[in-house]
Write a structure and sequence with these properties.
Blueprint (H helix, E strand, L loop, with lengths): L1 E5 L11 H15 L3 E7 L2 H11 L6 E9 L4 E12 L2 E7 L1 H4 L15 H19 L4 E5 L5 H7 L12 E6 L7 E2 L3 H4 L13 E2 L2 E3 H8 L2 E4 L2 H6 L3 H4 L3 H6 L4 E3 L27 H13 L11 E8 L5 H12 L4 E8 L1 H13 L4 E4 L4 H10 L2 E4 L9 H7 L3 E5 L2 H6 L13 E3 L4 H15 L2 H12 L6 H18 L1
Bound molecules: adenosine-5'-diphosphate (ADP) and alpha-D-glucopyranose (GLC).
């Protein structure tokens, strides 16, 4: 089969979160299963910069020139840049400088560009048009709201198109809270008929909703853990899409994300001060020293556990709870290192926490790939108290790095972390259920107490390090979903 991935993020080209990790790894694994895979991404400023560096001044290759994308009052013209074949995966970039040649992917400081409906509407249509010239796949695999309109275009605007008619679509929901909602005139702006703007199609509370369109018109749906697949069918996690998701429950599969162990493995990770494995943990000590040095906390005693945080600082991630227990936690014998950017209220909480406890708490308010790896390796405990978490990758990285996760039992966190049982020596971390700062503190306290028993702790570390969350098994599940979707169109 030929699968086209259309997405707004992909490592190493453009990343704000886990979506990029998934789109960077899954296609390669699908290729290994014998399929052909093509990935389309917007040609953002940072992707252009990367390509310019790779080409050292030479012209890029264009696969297609001047595709016309019509809007209500004007046309736009896009080129398709040939990104080359990497690990067997063909990359193409949708080049429309007016819309994509900007410093951010979605908007300044975690916000939104005003023309995001036009940007991602154009991207979706360009992928379909490019496909007609370069190769129509058996399946378009689209991701989150940014590419949610591909199925909508396909089943409406292009419904009678002889080239696209047989192509199937699979939508993966990485986060149901981000839906891409825009004012009603978006319907006309993107040249959709008004009869699409109804409750059973793209309309949701008088907004044009990209993700809802994707949910309604895709042949099959997936999301990134089994628990989250259940959760999004409830009001708490469905963010008003629970109804339409329940209607499609039979077509919705929960497939847990894998981890790219070529990038995230303490035995080979190029960002680390030393390497280590489950059978020889010695290198982790040097990683801890290196981490404390990088965060300017050189005087933390060896017996003091280090809690690490790497996160988008968004409401999703539960730092409002951490803020509520900040003072109490600082009374414990513990050091905290945090790496993250996002909403000002959370950035300011961390700055303030550091200000009040400079010998114990350190934070770097930025995006830093290398430092993220250092935290995974150098910390003793990884904290991820999410309000909701579709899958979550950091806790899975932590397991591999022997950095014991303390998580809230929701979504993929529930599915990937097993409660530590000291008597039996089973489990991989610490989970708490309620979205309550007291429950969070109690779970952290259990971890801090367990850390004092060195032998038990090493057992706990090794339990996590021994888990395999590679992409092999999930890729096979995706291949089955592609086959089922293609069968339905046959
Ligand atoms: P989400 O996609 O919701 O942000 P995930 O846990 O799935 O959560 O993925 C987050 C990814 O983004 C991980 O690869 C993590 O290392 C990375 N990340 C998040 N914040 C930062 C940061 N400030 N610097 C570097 N990497 C970050
Ligand atoms: C989203 C989710 C995260 C998930 C990632 C990759 O960003 O918030 O939980 O791991 O997508 O699927």
């Amino acid at each position: 089969m030929h699968i086209v991935f259309a997405a707004s993020e992909c490592v190493p080209f453009a990343k704000t979160g886990g979506l990029a990790d998934v789109v960077g790894a899954l296609p390669r694994q699908i290729v290994k299963l014998g399929h052909r895979v093509t990935v389309y991404l917007p040609f953002y400023a940072r992707v252009r910069a990367r390509m310019e560096k790779e080409h050292a001044g030479a012209e890029f290759k264009y696969a297609v020139r001047s595709i016309t994308i019509p809007f209500r009052y004007y046309n736009r013209f896009v080129d398709i840049v040939d990104g080359g074949v990497r690990d067997g995966v063909q990359f193409y970039f949708v080049d429309c400088p007016e819309l994509f040649d900007r410093p951010e992917l979605y908007g300044p400081r975690g916000g939104e560009y005003a023309d995001n409906a036009e940007r991602f509407g154009l991207f979706c249509r360009a992928v379909l048009e490019a496909g007609k010239q370069i190769g129509v796949p058996d399946v378009f695999h689209v991701h989150d709201w940014q590419t949610g309109l591909i199925p909508v275009y396909l089943r409406n605007t292009y419904a009678a198109d002889p080239m696209l008619r047989r192509a199937a679509t699979v939508l993966t929901i990485h986060n149901a809270a981000y839906q891409g909602t825009f004012p009603p005139p978006t319907t006309e702006q993107l040249l959709f008929p008004w009869d699409l703007f109804t409750m059973d199609k793209v309309e949701q509370y008088d907004r044009f909703n990209f993700l809802k369109g994707g949910v309604v018109f895709s042949d099959l749906l997936t999301t990134v853990s089994r628990t989250y697949a259940e959760e999004i069918q409830t009001p708490e996690f469905g963010w008003n899409l629970e109804g339409v998701l329940r209607e499609r429950a039979a077509d919705l599969h929960g497939i847990l994300n894998g981890v790219d162990y070529t990038r995230w493995n303490p035995a080979t990770d190029g960002y680390l001060a030393a390497h280590y494995t489950g059978s020889d943990l010695t290198g982790k000590r040097a990683c801890r020293e290196d981490l404390l040095h990088a965060f300017g906390l050189p005087n933390v005693a060896e017996t003091t556990p280090v809690i690490g945080i790497v996160s988008r600082l968004a409401t999703q991630k539960g730092f409002d709870m951490v803020a509520r227990i900040g003072e109490e936690l600082a009374q414990r014998d513990v050091a905290i290192v945090a790496l993250g950017t996002g909403e000002p209220v959370f950035e300011n909480f961390f700055r303030d926490w550091v200000f009040r406890h400079p010998a114990q708490v350190a934070a770097q308010i930025r995006y830093d790939e290398a430092l993220a790896h250092k935290v995974e390796a150098g910390a003793d405990i990884f904290l991820m108290p999410s309000r909701y978490e579709p899958c979550g990758l950091n806790q899975i990285y932590s397991l591999k790095y022997g950095t014991v996760p303390v998580v809230r039992a929701t979504g993929g966190l529930e599915d990937t972390v097993d409660q530590w049982n000291a008597e039996q020596g089973t489990g991989t971390g610490f989970k708490f259920k309620g979205y309550d700062p007291r429950d969070l503190l109690a779970a952290v306290d259990r971890a801090l107490a367990a850390f004092q028993d060195r032998a038990g702790w090493e057992r706990l570390m090794r339990n996590g390090m021994g888990r395999d969350y590679g992409w092999e098994a999930p890729a096979r599940e995706y291949a089955q979903v592609y086959e089922e979707a293609a069968r339905r169109k046959a």
